[in-house]
Design a protein that fits this description.
single chain; mainly beta; Neuraminidase; five-stranded antiparallel beta sheet; four-stranded antiparallel beta sheet
């Protein structure tokens, strides 16, 4: 929703087709999202002050979901859903409204790779992979298609997120603890410390971290209390 000068909330997009996974551009002036007007979720982008439902960036036979936009604005990270290889990760060079760009392969193995995030300097990609039989957090150089990748968890992990200085990676553990891992980046080398728990999330909750890594946005499912009904002057039925 976009708040206009009149204070009235207006839909950012319209129509009955499905639209998911909106991602802000680094400058905050555009949004990329997926939309299925043709029955398949494809990548679209739209300026914040624009009209309509946006311009097509990339179309393919598989459903797609956006996961990140590099800090320099050059690449959009997304996952696709292949019948042969499951979830795969790709980076689309951002060329607005040209339709000429083609995705760069990030992770395209015979297991699932998901929730990819660029490091702040754009030289690494963190994501979750179930190559071992459960999801673990993996980091690999960018650009690249799996070479030099390094697993940084051994007890499970989901939805990695970088601190803005690139010196810490946060993720969600299987027991719902938000975990932190110190990171040493030195050119083409990458070293990760030992994961440490920060706090426990409620079941089904998600989190986002502020750029400085000091604050967290957490959603929480709140259930309204069941109403209590009182019946006055009630008489039991005759036996």
């Amino acid at each position: 929703m976009t708040e206009t000068s009149s204070g009235v909330l207006q839909p950012f997009t319209s129509g009955s087709a499905n639209k998911f996974t909106p991602i802000w551009s680094p400058k905050g002036d555009r949004v990329v999202f997926v939309w299925d007007p043709k029955g398949v979720l494809d990548l679209y982008e739209k300026p914040v002050d624009g009209v309509g439902n946006g311009a097509l960036l990339w179309s393919s036979p598989e459903h797609k979901w956006t996961t990140d936009w590099s800090a320099d604005g050059r690449f959009i990270l997304f996952r696709s859903n292949s019948q042969k290889t499951g979830f795969d990760l790709w980076a689309l060079p951002y060329q607005p409204s040209s339709g000429a760009a083609k995705p760069i392969e990030i992770a395209h193995q015979s297991f699932d790779e998901d929730n990819g995030r660029f490091s702040p300097d754009g030289r690494w990609v963190a994501y979750q992979s179930n190559e071992t039989g459960r999801y673990e957090i993996v980091v690999q150089p960018f650009p690249g298609s799996g070479s030099g990748r390094k697993r940084i968890t051994t007890e499970g992990g989901f939805v990695p997120q970088w601190r803005n200085d690139g010196r810490e990676l946060l993720y969600l553990a299987p027991d719902n603890h938000v975990m932190a891992v110190s990171i040493e980046l030195n050119g083409s080398t990458f070293e990760a410390g030992k994961p440490a728990p920060l706090f426990l999330l409620s079941p089904q909750s998600e989190f986002a971290v502020s750029p400085d890594g000091q604050r967290f946005l957490v959603n929480k499912i709140v259930k309204d209390a069941s109403p209590i009904t009182i019946l006055l002057n009630w008489k039991p039925p005759a036996q």
